[in-house]
Specification:
The protein is α/β, with parallel strands linked by helices. The protein has a single domain, classed as Aldolase class I (TIM Barrel). It contains ten helices and twelve strands. The strands form three sheets. Strands 2-1-12-11-8-5-4-3 form an eight-stranded parallel beta sheet, with helices on both faces. Strands 6-7 form a two-stranded antiparallel sheet. A two-stranded antiparallel ribbon has the order 9-10. A hairpin with a 5-residue loop joins strand 9 (226-227) and strand 10 (233-234). The longest helix has 19 residues, at 113-131. It is globular. The model has no long low-confidence stretch (mean pLDDT 95).
Length: 342
């Protein structure tokens, strides 16, 4: 095999024993998960807002960001349920570039996956303990999900992973709501197949075990736009897209029909400043159609302390080193405007 095996890494069970949750933290996570499930089941009419950095590149600025959400959540609690994005792995189309906290706990140093495993668990633990939030993270690598599965309120499966069988089967055994993004090609059939698989029970090999999952009734769609054969981005959050998705849900007879609108990525052409406009348009579609209103469960917004993005060595505190984000002031304004429109 053309690779070196550098060292044996700690397994999730050992990591959890070294970095355990307190009963108070467990109660926080369970409470946040339960409310999210109520929203996806249609038992609560609040909208979900999954908001935060494109990637969680450093502990101090991420904790600073999430702490700022505390008073905002209090003001909009009757209308919105905020879930911080704390994404500790970053998918790279070509395999090049910063791959997230799990790979490089120090973005200026080389990869160190042992320290990365600890850093990502410690970050999620600090958020739960210090802010009362439980967060969203992406299931970039299914075999790594066990390092965080007890800490998360929400799990996302990305556009490049949604067709992968192991992602689908692992999602069927996850205790959080799981959002399945449409693939980069835009083929919604792929996404619907993924939701169908995640909502059913399976037997499969997971981390060397013969595993049995019980199905995840809260698996749902995330629309994030797509790229055509010429490499041009196209949105899929418009009224016609939502009506079509609703018809697919009806045809496939899936549980708890719902969609989260990813306001960045191909929906915005990676222009983060378009995100507020996209939110407003989707809300207008919800006001026009009761069918769309039932389907739309919330939004995903990429946001950090500072507008835009920078190189890894840029040196600006709270500015993304991956995709460009909406800065804090604009994000705070967006959240309050969104609550007023509901």
């Amino acid at each position: 095999m053309n690779m070196d095996f550098k060292r044996k890494l700690t397994i999730p069970m050992e990591t959890k024993r070294l970095y355990p949750m307190t009963p108070e933290m467990e109660a926080t996570v369970e409470r946040r998960r339960a409310e999210l499930k109520r929203i996806f089941e249609g038992k609560s009419d609040r909208l979900v807002l999954i908001v935060g950095p494109c990637s969680a590149d450093r502990e101090d600025s991420v904790l600073d960001y999430v702490a700022r959400l505390i008073p905002v959540q209090e003001r909009v609690r009757d209308k919105l349920f905020l879930v911080p994005r704390v994404y500790t792995g970053k998918p790279r189309t070509t395999g090049e570039g910063y791959k997230g906290l799990i790979h490089q706990p120090d973005p200026h140093a080389g990869p160190d996956l042992y320290k990365g495993i600890i850093a990502m668990r410690e970050l999620h633990m600090r958020v739960v303990k210090e802010t009362g939030f439980a967060c969203a993270d992406e299931m970039l690598y299914p075999e790594n999900h066990k390092y965080l599965d007890d800490l998360l309120a929400y799990t996302a499966v990305g556009a490049r992973s949604v067709e992968d069988q192991q992602h689908r089967l692992t999602a069927s055994g996850v205790e959080t709501p799981v959002g399945m993004k449409n693939p980069t090609s835009g083929d919604l059939t792929v996404m619907m197949n993924s939701i169908l698989a995640a909502q059913h029970a399976h037997d499969f090999i997971y981390r060397g075990w013969e595993a049995h999952s019980f199905g995840n009734p809260h698996a749902h769609a995330i629309l994030r736009g797509y790229v055509n054969r010429q490499g041009v981005t196209h949105p899929n959050y418009h009224y016609e897209d939502l009506i079509y998705l609703s018809s697919l849900y009806e045809r496939w007879e899936l549980q708890n029909p719902g969609v989260i609108i990813d306001c960045n990525h191909a929906n915005s052409g990676k222009n983060p400043f378009e995100q507020p406009r996209i939110v407003r348009e989707v809300l207008a579609s919800c006001r026009w159609s009761a069918e769309v209103k039932r389907l739309v469960k919330g939004f995903m917004v990429e946001s950090y302390l500072e507008d835009g993005c920078q190189e890894v060595d840029g040196g600006c505190y709270g500015k993304s080193i991956t995709d460009a984000c909406l800065g804090w002031e604009k994000t705070e304004r967006l959240i309050y405007e969104l609550a007023e429109l509901l």
